[in-house]
Amino acid sequence: MDGLGVHNHRGSPRSLNGYILGPQGFVAGTIEFDDAGRIVCVTGSPAGERAARDSGRPLVLPGFVDLHVHGGGGRDIMEGGGAAAGVAECHAAHGTTALLATTMTAPLADLELAFTGLRASIAQRAPRGARVLGVHLEGPYINPGKLGAQPDFTRPVSMEELARLHAIAPIRLITLAPEVAGNLAQVKALSDAGYLVQLGHTLASYEQAVEALAQGARGFTHLFNAMGPLHHRAPGAVGAALAHARHAEIIPDLLHVHPGALRVALRSIPCLYCVTDSTAASGMPDGEYRLGRQTVTKCLGGVRLADGTLAGSTLTMDQAFRNLVNELALGIAEASMRVSTHAADYLGLADRGRLAPGAWADAVVLDRDLQLTDVFVEGAPI
What pTM does this model have? Predict the structure, then answer.
């Protein structure tokens, strides 16, 4: 590929050449990383985004960070066993370099099976896979009136249950509905314990959502989806997010959320970041797949339950990035923030989601059409 150099001499830095998107913008030059998989330096001349896009040389961007992944490549996180490794490999092939494995609302025994399988994948990255950073527990502490595609095994927050699961594999993020009896009272305790709490699958009023934010909740799960709609006399959780949130996740497949609503969220929430909410059907042909205990069908670019309810997505992060640039007219640098940096910052990870000295060498290389040509996870080519 014209302009891309990859050098891997034992004991000396490896390097990539092209237009590199660093924290201060594009640099026409070289990024070097060491055998440990960390970035050593980024050198070159500052360049404008238009010049980078029009040059025909490779674009080197931070690897994508996805905090909501149920499956991919025919595998579902709730299977347990080696499913997570297969999911991580599927998404790495589409530029995701770090992710949170996301579980479904389920009985404790099912969650323990999934967590036991995740433990090995979190401890040891699959050779061609993304780094699994931990678990996003999407339920079971949600509202049974806003299940979406979740099965009805909902229950109030249980600190004992959380401690039991967290001892198996690290929980980084918890989705809950604050209006469920007892949940709001636990938000501060969860936040103090180090969990990120976000609101989702909820019928919370505006006031309940704002109070949850005051107690330590930090974000919103797939904004607009599985929550009450915005009304000018009853703004609900959507209104609370648009008025007060710094972070929220959103699914930019152009199916879950209308482009107009995406634009509203982009203008309102400073660090809005993209997720795939991907299922086992991601990267696979049309057909039937598992989502937890349920069967879902992939067709016409989406995934649905038998009753037509959207059930996660088939989105990959490279397509999410292209949708932001090509359909919503975001610049490359801003789109990169939305699929990488903001999510890493939300998790408190200063060494991912950016191409800067000391950070992990997680990078994607794109051509002028924004198609992936290379992916590096912690310095290793995928």
Answer: 0.95
